[in-house]
Design brief:
This protein is mainly beta and 161 residues long. The chain is built from three helices and nine strands, in the order E-E-H-E-H-E-E-E-E-E-E-H. The protein folds into two domains: 85 residues, Chitinase A, domain 3 (Roll); 49 residues, Thrombin, subunit H (Beta Barrel). It is 11% helix and 39% strand. Its EC number is 5.2.1.8.
Length: 161
Protein backbone atom coordinates (compact mmCIF):
# COMPACT_ATOMS: atom_id res chain seq x y z
CA UNK A 1 0.00 0.00 0.00
CA UNK A 2 1.30 3.45 -0.88
CA UNK A 3 1.33 6.46 1.43
CA UNK A 4 -1.33 8.96 0.48
CA UNK A 5 -3.96 11.19 2.03
CA UNK A 6 -5.76 9.60 4.99
CA UNK A 7 -3.33 6.68 5.27
CA UNK A 8 -1.88 5.81 8.67
CA UNK A 9 1.91 5.75 8.51
CA UNK A 10 4.10 3.93 11.02
CA UNK A 11 7.50 5.59 10.83
CA UNK A 12 10.82 4.61 12.37
CA UNK A 13 13.28 7.47 12.50
CA UNK A 14 16.35 9.01 14.01
CA UNK A 15 16.56 12.78 14.16
CA UNK A 16 19.86 14.60 14.47
CA UNK A 17 20.93 18.19 14.86
CA UNK A 18 22.11 18.71 11.27
CA UNK A 19 24.93 21.02 12.37
CA UNK A 20 26.39 19.17 15.37
CA UNK A 21 25.28 15.62 14.35
CA UNK A 22 23.94 15.13 17.91
CA UNK A 23 21.28 12.40 18.05
CA UNK A 24 18.13 14.08 19.40
CA UNK A 25 15.55 11.30 19.17
CA UNK A 26 15.38 7.68 18.09
CA UNK A 27 12.11 5.79 17.75
CA UNK A 28 13.99 2.55 18.47
CA UNK A 29 13.60 3.52 22.14
CA UNK A 30 9.88 4.35 21.97
CA UNK A 31 8.55 2.42 19.00
CA UNK A 32 7.35 3.82 15.67
CA UNK A 33 5.76 7.24 15.32
CA UNK A 34 2.22 7.07 13.89
CA UNK A 35 0.48 9.81 11.98
CA UNK A 36 -2.26 10.26 9.39
CA UNK A 37 -0.84 11.51 6.08
CA UNK A 38 -2.28 14.81 4.89
CA UNK A 39 -3.68 16.00 8.23
CA UNK A 40 -0.72 18.24 9.08
CA UNK A 41 0.26 16.12 12.08
CA UNK A 42 3.93 15.80 11.12
CA UNK A 43 6.49 18.05 9.51
CA UNK A 44 5.21 18.98 6.01
CA UNK A 45 8.59 18.34 4.36
CA UNK A 46 8.60 14.76 5.69
CA UNK A 47 4.99 14.13 4.67
CA UNK A 48 5.81 15.43 1.16
CA UNK A 49 8.94 13.25 0.89
CA UNK A 50 6.99 10.13 1.90
CA UNK A 51 3.94 10.69 -0.31
CA UNK A 52 3.37 7.69 -2.62
CA UNK A 53 6.12 5.65 -0.92
CA UNK A 54 5.56 2.15 0.53
CA UNK A 55 6.54 0.05 3.52
CA UNK A 56 10.31 -0.39 3.66
CA UNK A 57 11.14 2.92 1.98
CA UNK A 58 14.15 4.62 3.56
CA UNK A 59 15.48 8.13 3.07
CA UNK A 60 17.33 10.98 4.73
CA UNK A 61 15.66 14.38 4.89
CA UNK A 62 17.34 17.62 5.94
CA UNK A 63 14.98 20.26 7.32
CA UNK A 64 16.09 23.81 8.10
CA UNK A 65 14.79 25.20 11.40
CA UNK A 66 12.39 27.53 9.55
CA UNK A 67 10.62 24.49 8.07
CA UNK A 68 10.87 22.43 11.26
CA UNK A 69 10.10 23.96 14.67
CA UNK A 70 11.30 27.51 14.08
CA UNK A 71 13.76 29.68 15.91
CA UNK A 72 14.16 29.42 19.67
CA UNK A 73 11.84 32.05 21.21
CA UNK A 74 13.09 33.56 24.48
CA UNK A 75 9.54 34.86 25.14
CA UNK A 76 8.44 31.25 25.70
CA UNK A 77 10.79 30.98 28.69
CA UNK A 78 9.10 32.08 31.91
CA UNK A 79 9.97 32.54 35.55
CA UNK A 80 7.11 31.39 37.78
CA UNK A 81 6.84 30.53 41.46
CA UNK A 82 6.09 27.27 43.22
CA UNK A 83 2.71 28.77 44.17
CA UNK A 84 1.81 28.71 40.45
CA UNK A 85 2.00 24.90 40.71
CA UNK A 86 -0.18 24.52 43.81
CA UNK A 87 -2.50 22.13 41.92
CA UNK A 88 0.35 19.68 41.31
CA UNK A 89 1.29 17.01 43.87
CA UNK A 90 4.94 17.26 42.96
CA UNK A 91 7.06 19.28 40.54
CA UNK A 92 10.56 18.50 39.28
CA UNK A 93 13.04 19.57 36.65
CA UNK A 94 12.17 17.94 33.33
CA UNK A 95 8.46 17.69 34.17
CA UNK A 96 6.18 18.43 31.23
CA UNK A 97 2.78 20.02 31.71
CA UNK A 98 0.06 21.51 29.53
CA UNK A 99 -0.56 25.25 29.48
CA UNK A 100 -3.96 26.49 28.33
CA UNK A 101 -3.66 29.68 26.28
CA UNK A 102 -6.11 32.59 26.23
CA UNK A 103 -7.52 31.46 22.87
CA UNK A 104 -8.36 28.02 24.32
CA UNK A 105 -5.52 26.20 22.58
CA UNK A 106 -2.93 24.24 24.52
CA UNK A 107 0.84 24.15 24.56
CA UNK A 108 3.30 21.86 26.30
CA UNK A 109 5.88 23.40 28.65
CA UNK A 110 8.70 21.83 30.61
CA UNK A 111 10.22 22.82 33.95
CA UNK A 112 13.87 23.52 33.19
CA UNK A 113 15.04 24.65 36.63
CA UNK A 114 13.81 24.99 40.19
CA UNK A 115 15.75 27.47 42.31
CA UNK A 116 14.23 27.97 45.75
CA UNK A 117 10.73 29.35 45.13
CA UNK A 118 11.48 30.19 41.48
CA UNK A 119 10.39 27.76 38.77
CA UNK A 120 11.69 28.29 35.24
CA UNK A 121 9.67 26.88 32.34
CA UNK A 122 10.20 26.63 28.60
CA UNK A 123 7.41 26.21 26.03
CA UNK A 124 9.70 25.98 23.00
CA UNK A 125 9.67 22.68 21.14
CA UNK A 126 12.81 20.76 22.22
CA UNK A 127 14.09 20.92 18.62
CA UNK A 128 13.40 24.62 18.02
CA UNK A 129 16.40 26.64 16.92
CA UNK A 130 17.96 23.60 15.23
CA UNK A 131 18.42 22.49 11.65
CA UNK A 132 17.35 18.85 11.59
CA UNK A 133 18.39 15.71 9.77
CA UNK A 134 15.90 12.83 9.75
CA UNK A 135 16.78 9.25 8.81
CA UNK A 136 13.39 7.63 8.21
CA UNK A 137 12.04 4.21 7.31
CA UNK A 138 8.40 3.48 6.60
CA UNK A 139 7.53 0.61 8.95
CA UNK A 140 3.95 0.20 7.74
CA UNK A 141 1.06 1.88 5.91
CA UNK A 142 -2.65 1.22 6.30
CA UNK A 143 -6.01 2.87 5.74
CA UNK A 144 -7.15 5.18 8.53
CA UNK A 145 -10.42 4.18 10.13
CA UNK A 146 -13.42 6.49 9.97
CA UNK A 147 -13.09 7.03 13.71
CA UNK A 148 -9.41 8.03 13.36
CA UNK A 149 -10.30 10.48 10.60
CA UNK A 150 -13.12 11.95 12.73
CA UNK A 151 -10.83 12.32 15.75
CA UNK A 152 -7.85 13.52 13.72
CA UNK A 153 -5.30 11.10 15.19
CA UNK A 154 -4.22 7.46 15.11
CA UNK A 155 -5.84 5.11 17.60
CA UNK A 156 -4.30 1.86 18.76
CA UNK A 157 -2.18 0.66 15.90
CA UNK A 158 -3.05 -2.67 14.36
CA UNK A 159 -0.67 -4.13 11.83
CA UNK A 160 -2.70 -5.72 9.05
CA UNK A 161 -0.03 -8.21 7.92
Amino acid sequence: MKIGENKVVALDYKVYDADTKELLEDTAELGPYYYIQGMGLFLPKIEAALDSKSKGYKTTIEIPMEEAYGDYDEELVEELTKADFADFEDIYEGMEFVVELEDGSEMVAVITEIDGDKVYTDSNHPFSGRNLLFEVEVADVREATDEELDHGHVHEYENEE
